[in-house]
Design goal:
6 strands; 16% strand; single chain; six-stranded parallel sheet; TIM Barrel; alpha/beta
């Protein structure tokens, strides 16, 4: 699709954005994999006074990420694993650019909703939770330093996303190996102790998102 074609689809629902104070969320996959196209869409949305959000893993080179971050209003930002070696093990890539890009967002005063996927035995370990909270605390400290100038809090909330097996059929359909085959879905109630632990950060904590 062209930028004009996508914008035509977006504009069809403008009445709903106006009534709900909503807007457009660019998701995926990973929207930053098509950064030039995404940048053009964000420029058009800004020209049309449409609120924009980007749902991202944060895995992108600094320059294109910074270009996009200046244009979007809100980021839904994943934090999976704080340890680089474990991040490589489970995702196949380093988390250095992810953490760097998030630090840059906080420094810029951009509105951010952090999203923590809770995967049993992988992301919910005592070590990962401790390191993740420590990193978020460092972000909060930086945020407070900037608040004297910005006048607002830009980490709006943290969403705890319980593991689900919705992709199971896709693995089978595309003949891919599902390394989490058989792992049970998590219920919201099972995340209540984790919610309580994250609440020590003094940021609103939601289950789901």
């Amino acid at each position: 699709m062209t930028v004009n074609e996508v914008m035509a689809v977006i504009e069809r629902d403008r009445i709903f954005y106006d009534e709900s104070n909503g807007g457009v969320t660019f998701s995926g996959g990973e929207p930053l994999m098509q950064e030039p196209f995404l940048e053009e869409l964000l420029i058009r949305c800004k020209q049309d006074k449409l609120h924009t959000a980007i749902d991202t893993s944060g895995y992108a080179s600094p320059t294109p990420f910074d270009r996009v971050s200046r244009l979007a209003d809100l980021f839904l930002y994943d934090l999976k694993l704080a340890d680089e070696a474990l991040h490589r093990k489970y995702t196949g890539v380093s988390n250095r650019s992810i953490l760097r890009n998030l630090e840059a967002l906080i420094a810029s005063g951009k509105a951010v909703i952090l999203r923590f996927p809770v995967v049993p035995g992988i992301t919910d370990t005592e070590e990962n939770i401790f390191k993740t909270k420590a990193f978020i605390n460092s972000l909060i400290h930086r945020q407070k330093l900037h608040n004297s100038q910005m006048g607002r809090q830009n980490i709006l909330q943290i969403d705890l996303l319980p593991y689900h097996s919705m992709a199971r059929k896709k693995y089978r359909r595309f003949c891919k190996t599902n390394l989490l085959e058989g792992m049970p879905d998590l219920s919201a109630d099972q995340l209540l102790p984790l919610k309580k632990e994250f609440e020590t950060l003094e940021i609103p904590i939601h289950i789901g998102g």
